[in-house]
Specification:
By secondary structure, the protein is an alpha/beta fold. Helices cover 28% and strands 16% of the residues. Helix 3 crosses helix 18, helix 10 packs antiparallel against helix 20 and helix 21 crosses helix 25. The N and C termini lie far apart (63 Å). 53% of the residues are buried.
Length: 815
């Protein structure tokens, strides 16, 4: 018999007992009296056997986090454990329930009853959803282990998307840093915080390519509209989460939402995705593949259909592509209730058929339904599925638990003491501030009468700071569900700390939402304390105008409500709320310099905002240190260096909008003009600002690209050299971007594709030369016959500081 702490003893006693009868209740179940130590987890002693002594034998310290050697089971031992499991116990490992199911006192009427699971289902389930807090994790794990016949621990999973207690910018903002190394380190710090407080697996990163700002989940996508950037960010996030797994720390990363979720028709949540296999493989799958290649331990299915088949039932996508082509061997989990929803999709008549489809697609874990719990055994008896299929799914779940060391430490090092030491560490707060500073995108910065730009702010100016986000801590966004607001400084507090209270005049100006826009939130309004209509807005606006009249410069902190973006936040209107625009118009009419800071989880239409503003900063949801970062940028302590990961629309009707469009037979502006071209009658073809765009406080000039050869052969590398000169009086940072275009191919190719980028810092007057390399492998694509490779011919190479402002050179690829 194995003990719960380290299963090193024989399973013979269990194998000899009848599988239909669980062993008698535990003789003893004791644990170190203090939950502040994870070194001595629950010591289980069934049948009066002594607790395992392997911890002492390998010299493991009792101090938290000092595990020097992993003693996870070998494969043969894990196989023996699985052989001892009954079919009900195996199926249980494939069921995930939320923590409320484990806490209810009445199964018949509590949360478990709503999804149809029984008490037996609960105490056989293999994992828990969104339970955080070391004390709670210990309590649930203890109760579970005391009831488990084989003492197989629960796996605790949670949505730790862009921070735990310390909240970093929303992923769309993190992508704007174009700084994978910083993001990897940030996600390592996020993992440390969450792991000490009970998380073992995180549902992150989201690797969806998204080109329609109407979709609410834009905020979760670090790569925005670009597969190359998305791949770099997904890889960095996975590596960050899992960096310390060999030490028994960190988090297992579950990449989501596989696949194509970001291409939902019309930007409507959970909607159909319909595209060619070529486009799916070429543009939407690369970031997921990068996350899998980086070692992501889990993958989550998406809600949408792919080629008419819901992803959760799509064997081609899950088995043929993910497992067979890519070699992914880890657990595959559904998104929330996705197996049950196969009936709504119309591909399953009942729960049995839905469960059969999902299992045959190699989906291992059913999140928050009773489908697997109640259907798989019946399907097995009817011969519709095999025990081998159940075994393979169970094996993948057990293997992850073993890899994470749960059989040695069911709590995986979490404790109240460890969490207290880990939360809000100075290095995490510093990293959150640095990420926030790098994520801010300066969209406009006009010059004043004296020729100086509005930003950074001149010393000694009295500032009017107005708007609903000027003194708000609600700048972390919808999906930071565990984040604390205690350490958050508002923009007002951060500026007043630097300039003094007397230099910063404040007025709220408006509420975030009123009227119809508030009513759009429906039932979600109560989560934000917005159950009643705010009072009259005119007195708030008048107060703001009075404050602005006394100041030299007016800063407006405006934006959408956090609940207007995120999951289920699809919108057709991407503009600032009406009363906020009224405030902006009336402040602008005062004739003073106006700076607008926009808080949002997606690109908004700012076509009406920019003419009324001298400077505009897109802040996204900047996180715990967002107020500090904005104050530093406004005052010139640091420079805004963020670059757009999504094109900003001129109008909503342009969506979906992205820079890497395909050429058409009648492209506007290229030997074609007038009405009969690919364009609009009432708007430009391009957006207000393109992918890769962003301003700084310095002035740089990028040279023409110079190639070291005119012809590239397979096996060779072509060098692209370019120089960046800082012509301004201050130091600055640019993001130099490399693109290419395949001029003639067997299928039409994008007009421009990102294939490299580099953050470059220059001192005043400094010139920096940089070198990119292009290899034949970078030019491959899914050709007309659906083979993957390159084709000889002419290529263009572009270097620039955005996707729209580039300089070009050419080369030939020869076979």
């Amino acid at each position: 018999m194995r003990c719960a702490a380290c299963p090193r003893l024989s399973l013979s006693s269990l194998q000899s007992s009848s599988p239909s009868q669980a062993p008698s209740p535990l003789a003893t179940a004791t644990r170190c009296s203090s939950r502040r130590s994870s070194a001595h987890p629950l010591q289980l002693k069934p049948y009066g056997l002594p607790a395992c002594r392997c911890r002492q034998s390998i010299g493991i310290s009792s101090a938290i986090g000092t595990r020097r050697e992993r003693c996870a089971m070998k494969e043969a031992e894990l196989r023996s454990l699985m052989e001892a499991m009954t079919i009900d116990e195996k199926i249980g490992q494939l069921v995930q329930l939320s923590g409320e199911c484990f806490g209810t006192g009445d199964i018949a009427t509590g949360p478990a009853a709503k999804i149809g699971v029984t008490e037996e289902d609960i105490w056989r389930s293999g994992s828990v959803l969104n339970v955080m807090g070391a004390d709670e994790v210990h309590s649930i794990q203890d109760a579970y282990m005391a009831k488990s016949r084989l003492h197989i621990p629960l796996l605790f999973m949670a949505d730790v998307v862009y921070g735990y207690k310390t909240c970093f910018p929303a992923p769309i903002g993190l992508g704007c840093t174009f700084d994978p190394a910083r993001i990897e380190e940030a996600y390592s710090l996020i993992a440390d915080e969450a792991q000490t407080d009970g998380c073992m697996v995180t549902f992150s990163p989201a690797a969806d390519v998204v080109r329609d700002a109407r979709w609410g989940r834009v905020m979760e996508m670090p790569g925005g509209e670009d597969p190359y950037l998305g791949s770099a960010m997904a890889e960095a996030m996975v590596r960050g989460f899992q960096k310390r797994l060999p030490e028994g720390r960190g988090l297992a990363s579950c990449v989501k939402h596989f696949a194509g979720y970001g291409a939902a028709e019309g930007g409507r949540e959970y909607n159909t995705v319909d595209m060619s296999e070529r486009r799916l493989r070429q543009e939407y799958l690369p970031p997921y593949r990068a996350a899998v290649d980086a070692g992501a331990k889990m993958v989550m299915t998406s809600f949408n259909t792919v080629d008419g088949v819901p992803a959760t039932a799509n064997r081609w996508l899950m088995h043929d592509v993910l497992r067979e082509e890519w070699g992914f061997a880890g657990p595959l989990i559904t998104d929330y209730a996705a197996i049950l929803e196969l009936m709504n999709h119309g591909v399953a008549a009942d729960k049995d058929e839905a469960s059969e489809l999902a299992l045959k697609a190699t989906v291992d874990i059913d999140m928050k339904t009773d489908c697997y719990a109640h259907s798989l055994k019946r399907l097995l008896a009817e011969g519709r599925i095999s025990e081998d299929e159940i075994d393979r799914a169970c094996w993948r779940v057990l293997s992850l638990k073993n890899e994470l060391g749960l059989f040695e430490d069911p709590y995986r090092g979490c404790s109240e003491a460890a969490a207290e030491e880990s939360l809000y560490k100075p290095e995490a707060l510093d990293a959150a501030r640095a990420c926030a500073e790098e994520s801010l995108v300066l969209l406009k910065n006009a010059s004043m009468e004296d020729g100086k730009p509005v930003l950074p702010l001149a010393q000694g100016q009295k500032i009017a700071l107005v708007g609903p986000y000027a003194d708000s801590r609600d700048i972390i966004g919808m999906w930071a569900i565990h984040a604390g607001k205690g350490p958050v400084k508002t923009v007002r507090e951060a500026l007043a700390e630097r300039l003094g209270e007397g230099q910063v005049l404040y007025a709220k100006g408006t509420d975030i939402l009123v009227g119809e826009e508030l009513q759009e939130l429906g039932e979600f309004a109560r989560f934000a304390g917005l159950g009643t209509e705010p009072g009259p807005q005119e007195p708030l606006i008048e107060e703001a105008l009075h404050v602005c009249a006394e100041a030299a410069i007016c800063i407006l902190c405006l934006g959408e409500h956090a609940l207007q973006s995120g999951e289920a936040g699809a919108r057709t209107k991407l503009r600032l709320p009406a009363q906020q625009m009224e405030l902006l118009r009336r402040v602008h009419a005062l004739g003073k310099p106006v700076v607008c800071i926009i808080f949002s989880g997606r690109p908004l239409v700012l076509t009406d905002v920019e003419p009324l503003s001298d400077s505009v900063i897109e802040a996204w949801w900047p996180g715990t240190m967002g107020g500090e970062a904005l104050a530093a940028v406004l005052l010139g302590e640091t420079e805004p260096t963020g670059r757009l990961t999504m094109s900003m629309p001129y109008a909503e009707g342009q969506e979906p909008l992205y820079y890497c469009q395909y050429p058409t037979g009648r492209p506007a502006g290229k030997n074609h003009s007038g009405r009969f071209v690919t364009g609009y009658l009432d708007a430009p073809i391009g957006g207000l600002h393109p992918f890769g765009y962003g301003l700084g406080y310095h002035t740089s000039v990028l040279s023409e690209p110079v190639l070291d050869r005119a012809v590239l052969h397979p096996g060779e590398k072509l060098a692209v050299s370019v120089t960046l000169e800082n012509k301004g009086p201050i130091a600055g940072t640019d993001v130099v971007q490399l693109y290419f275009h395949d001029c003639v191919a067997s299928v039409t190719r994008p007009v421009k594709q990102l294939c490299g980028f580099r953050r470059v810092h220059t001192e005043p007057g400094e010139t920096v030369e940089m070198r990119f390399e292009i290899a034949e492998e970078m030019l491959r694509f899914w050709r007309r016959d659906m083979t993957y490779g390159s084709e000889p011919g002419r290529f263009e190479v572009f270097c620039g500081l955005s996707s729209a402002e580039t300089r070009c050179a050419e080369f030939i690829l020869e076979a």
